[in-house]
C-alpha cells in the first residue's frame, strides 16, 4: 500500500462511518418506497410543489376518511406516501391548469440499500458496457439475476424493458438525476421502477441472491429474488462472520411471509444450533442482539404461497475498551475485567478482542494496526496537505467506487459533476421507442378523478 492510499484511507474514515450509519437508518427498504414514513412534504427538495394534507384530499381516493387507521402511512399530515403500490411515494398537489393533481416525490433519503441511483445514459458509451437484454416481462430481479449469473457487479434498467449489465465502477461520471426520472414502470411488474428514457436505474447485483458470505460490519440481506416475490422450493444460506465482533444487532425492516411453512432462521455459526425462527405465523416483532461473531441465516420456502420476503439489516459491534489509553488505574482494571467477561460470553473461538481501527466496511484482517495508521497519517497529512487539497475530490470519488461489492449504500455520494465537465455527451440512445409518459398520464388505476 503506498503512502497516498494510506493517507486517503485515513481521510475517508469519517465519511465512510456516516454512510454506514445511514444504511442502518435508511428510510426505505422496499424498492417502491411503500415503507417510507419520513416527513418530506414537497415533491422535491429543490423547488418542488407543496403536498396537500391527506386529511383534506376528500375529492381524491386517498384520504384519512377512507383510510382512517393509518393505512399506507396516511394521516393528519402532508408527507409523501405510497399507499397504492405505485413505483414510488407521491402526494396530491394543488391542481393547476394542466389538470395535474398528483406528483411523484423525489426523496433522496428514500432509497433501498443496493439501489445505486438514477443516472443519465447518453448512449455513447452507456454507463454499463457488459451485456444487454430486452424483455417485455422485465422486472428488476430478472435483470439482476441475468447480470449476477454472468458475474457482473451492476444491473441497470431503462425504459421499463431494457436490462444492462456491467462492472463499470465509474457509472457516476454520467451524472445522477432525480429518482423520479427513473419511475417508468417495469413491463413485467407495474409496482417496480425500471428507469426512463435515457435514464438508467442501477442496482447492486447481489440483491436477492440465494446465499452469500458477509464480513462487513453492517449490511442488508434481502430474501431471494427481491424485489420480486421469492420463488418456490428455495433453501438459501448466508453467512455473517465479522472478525472481532462481540455482538451483532439484527432487525427485520421488512417481513412479508404468509405461509407458515416458509421460514427464516438464524443459527449459531459454530454449533449450527437454531437461535431464532420466524415464519408465516411467527413474525419478528422487534430488533434483537446476538452475542457472536458468526451467524448463519437460513431461508426456506415450500411450493405454495410465495410472498415478497424480507429485508434483514445487521450491524456488528466490537469492544471499544482501548479508545482512551490514559485512564486512572481503577478504571483500567474495570475495563479489563469487563473485556474479559465479554470475551467469555461472546467469543466462542477465543479470539483476541481488538480495537476498532479500520473503516467498518473493510474486513479487519487485511489492515495494519492503528499505530501505523495514525502516525503515517499524521506525517502524510502534514507533508502533502496542499496536494490533498488539490486532488481530494477526484480521488475520493474513485476510492469510493473501488469497492462495488457492497450491498449497502456506504458509497452513496453526490453526482459526478467534476467528471461530467470532461464528459462529452453524444447523441442519445435511439434503439428504444419513446414511452408515452407525462405528468398527466395517470398510470395508477386506483387514483381516479
Ligand atoms: C413542510 O414541513 C416543514 C417542516 O416540517 C414546514 O416548515 C413546512 O411549512 C411544511 N410545508 C408544507 C407545505 O406543509
Ligand atoms: C389536517 O391536519 C392538520 C395537521 O394536524 C391540521 O392542521 C388541519 O386542520 C387538518 N385539516 C382538517 C380538515 O381536519
Ligand atoms: C461462502 O463461503 C463458503 C465456504 O467458504 C463457500 O463454499 C461458498 O461458495 C461461499 N458462497 C458464496 C456465495 O460466495
Ligand atoms: C443491542 O446492542 C446495542 C449495542 O450494544 C444496543 O444499543 C441495543 O440497545 C441492543 N438492543 C437490544 C434489543 O438488546
Ligand atoms: C497506579 O498504580 C501505581 C502502582 O501500580 C501507583 O504507584 C500509582 O500511584 C497509581 N496511580 C493512581 C492514579 O492511582
Ligand atoms: C465479571 O464476571 C465476574 C464473575 O464471573 C463478576 O464478579 C464481575 O462483576 C464481572 N465484571 C463485570 C464488569 O461484569
Automatic annotation (TrEMBL):
Lipid bilayer topology: Single-pass type I membrane protein
Signal peptide extent: 1-20
InterPro entries named in the record: CUB_dom, Kremen, Kremen_rcpt, Kringle, Kringle-like, Kringle_CS, Kringle_sf, Sperma_CUB_dom_sf
Domain (CUB) ranges: 210-317
Protein name: Kremen protein
Protein source organism: Eleutherodactylus coqui
Function: Receptor for Dickkopf proteins. Cooperates with DKK1/2 to inhibit Wnt/beta-catenin signaling by promoting the endocytosis of Wnt receptors LRP5 and LRP6.
Entry's localization field: Cell membrane; Membrane
